[in-house]
Amino acid sequence: MATAPKHLGIILMGPPGAGKGTQAPQIKAKYGLCHLATGDMLRAAIAAGTPLGKKVKSVISAGELVSDDLIVGLIQERLGSDPECEHGFIFDGFPRTIPQAVMLDELLAKEEKSLDHVISFEIDDGILLDRITGRLIHRASGRSYHVVHRPPKVPGKDDVTGEPLYKRPDDNEEACKNRLKVYHSQTAPLKEFYSKKGLLRLINAYQEADSVFADVQAVLNAQH
């Protein structure tokens, strides 16, 4: 593991399929940060079959947004209980709106934690549709594959563990188009919000994953 700064706060943003879920585990491993993937938190609630999970399931499957209060509550719990968060954090999938960004500012101020970088993965919508509709995911690790462009060595099985891969229920063309529409209307404005704060870093996401990660490291290393 690389030597990390005393505290490093990162937000990863970009449209669905841009590579946030691929890059976050690598950043986590290299810099020793906690990975706050709100989508994973919500899917865990669904898997547990709780009343809340059942409510969230229909929302996520439709590619829509869950309530701000729910997400902020999940994040606050993790920030307060996960030892890895003492070194820093990676937000993946949050904030998605300006009001959420304001809520996050308030939460981080309350927790006395800083935000250092907002890394935006830039890529065209047409490429994303192809990426997402062919995506397969290893549930436990978050490793992702593509049926055509990055197939697993054994069809339907994770390369590392051999465990089954799954296709997210919202990884279909209709839900994907809806998620992209939501992203452009509600989330993309965050780039201006964070640019004014001097925190925005743009990354070309239309590259091999290793090249994207090299660009991410260049951003982090240049700033620290």
Structural overview:
- The chain is an alpha/beta fold.
- It has a domain at 8-125 and 187-223: P-loop containing nucleotide triphosphate hydrolases (Rossmann fold, 3-Layer(aba) Sandwich).
- It is 48% helix and 14% strand.
- The chain is built from nine helices and seven strands.
- A hairpin with a 6-residue loop joins strand 5 (135-137) and strand 6.
- Helix 1 (20-31) crosses helix 9 (209-223), helix 4 (68-81) packs parallel to helix 5 and helix 6 (125-133) crosses helix 7.
- The longest helix is centred in the C-terminal third of the chain and has 15 residues, at 173-187.
- The radius of gyration is 17 Å and the shape is globular.
- The two termini are 16 Å apart.
- GO terms for molecular function: AMP kinase activity; ATP binding.
- Residues 135-170 form the Adenylate kinase active site lid domain.
- Belongs to the adenylate kinase family.
Quick overview:
The protein is of the alpha/beta class and 224 residues long.
CATH superfamily of one domain: P-loop containing nucleotide triphosphate hydrolases
> Could you tell me the strand content as a percent range?
5-15%
- State the CATH architecture of one domain: 3-Layer(aba) Sandwich
Report the total helices: 9
Main sheet specs = 5 strands, parallel
Principal-axes shape call: globular
The neighbouring-strand order within the major sheet is 2-3-1-4-7
Average pLDDT, all residues: 86
SSE series? EHEHHHEHEHEEHHEH
Integer-rounded radius of gyration: 17 Å
